[in-house]
């Protein structure tokens, strides 16, 4: 099993605020990992650093053994927290954009999921509901044959039925040697698909453990441990 994401004494400051404070973290390939923590804990910052959208203040982050770069973007598929697709595009145009931009885009997979959902491929994104937009963006993200999927709040703000669809889509569309990192605060909804979890508090890793070990050693679900750990 190879290392796909490694953080070494990783720090990120925004002015006087320290978003990440010395994160050491190693994620192996072939895992679905929950990046869990309350709002403001540094989840989105960590994902953006891994995707090369931010530069570390100190320390380093390595993706597939390399610092974030054009080369690592070719093996990372990123789902931002907010819809990033141009609103004038249709689903058909968005698929063409991904096919032109990413060598690993599997158009057949995207078309299959879009057909199963009954999405109108010629309808502008701006006319779609929030849930439909999120489904489309996730379909495009998961239709790449990436080594690392970085999903920032993929089930936030959608109804329970859509959450179930999104989780099934994630499970069905990543290869067994790829890693999926899911940032979320909806622990109970994602726990069923996770292999391991990382708890972040105020920019520091509090816990990194397999879900099975938590259940065996703590006698609790991940959701129960999370609520206990972050109780105010």
Question: What do these coordinates show?
Answer:
By secondary structure, the protein is an alpha/beta fold. The chain has one domain (3-229): P-loop containing nucleotide triphosphate hydrolases (Rossmann fold, 3-Layer(aba) Sandwich), CATH 3.40.50. It has helices at residues 43-50, 70-73, 91-101, 107-117, 130-142, 160-172, 187-190, 211-218, 222-229; strands at 3-14, 17-28, 32-36, 58-63, 76-79, 148-152, 179-184, 196-201, 204-210. The strands form two sheets. It has a six-stranded mixed beta sheet, sandwiched between helices. It has a three-stranded antiparallel beta sheet with strand order 2-1-4, with helices on one face. The longest helix has 13 residues, at 130-142. The model has no long low-confidence stretch (mean pLDDT 91).
Distance from first to last alpha carbon? 38 Å
**Measured on Cα atoms, how large is the radius of gyration?**
17 Å
When the domains are counted, the total is: 1
CATH C-level class is Alpha Beta
What is the tally of helical segments? 9
Strand order of the main beta sheet, please? 5-6-7-3-8-9
Helix content: 25-40%
Task: Sketch the major β-sheet.
Answer: 6 strands, mixed
> What is the correct CATH architecture?
3-Layer(aba) Sandwich
How large a portion of the residues is in β-strands, by DSSP E? Answer: 25-35%
CATH superfamily membership, which one? P-loop containing nucleotide triphosphate hydrolases
Total beta strands: 9
Q: Which residues form runs of ≥5 with pLDDT under 50?
A: none
SSE string, helices as H and strands as E:
EEEHEHEHHHEHEHEEHH
- CATH structural fold name: Rossmann fold
This entry's quaternary arrangement is single chain
Which structural class is indicated by helix and strand composition? alpha/beta
What would you call the shape? globular
């Amino acid at each position: 099993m190879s290392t796909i994401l490694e953080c070494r004494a990783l720090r990120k400051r925004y002015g006087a605020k320290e978003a990440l404070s010395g994160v050491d973290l190693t994620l192996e390939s072939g895992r679905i990992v929950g990046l869990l923590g309350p709002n403001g804990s540094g989840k989105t910052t960590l994902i953006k650093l891994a995707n090369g959208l931010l530069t570390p203040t100190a320390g380093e982050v390595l993706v597939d053994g390399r610092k974030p770069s054009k080369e690592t973007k070719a093996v990372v598929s990123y789902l931002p927290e907010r819809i990033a697709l141009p609103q004038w595009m249709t689903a058909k145009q968005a698929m063409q954009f991904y096919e032109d931009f990413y060598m690993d885009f599997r158009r057949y997979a995207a078309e299959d999921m879009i057909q199963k959902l009954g999405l109108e491929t010629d309808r502008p994104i701006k006319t779609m509901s929030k849930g439909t937009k999120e489904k489309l963006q996730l379909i495009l993200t998961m239709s790449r044959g990436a080594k690392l999927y970085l999903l920032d709040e993929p089930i936030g703000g959608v109804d329970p039925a859509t959450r179930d669809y999104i989780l099934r889509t994630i499970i069905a569309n990543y290869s067994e040697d790829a890693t999926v990192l899911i940032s979320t605060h909806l622990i109970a909804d994602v726990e069923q698909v996770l292999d391991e979890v990382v708890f972040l508090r105020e920019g520091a890793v509090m816990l990194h453990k397999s879900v099975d070990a938590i259940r065996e050693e703590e006698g609790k679900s991940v959701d129960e441990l999370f609520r206990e750990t972050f109780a105010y």
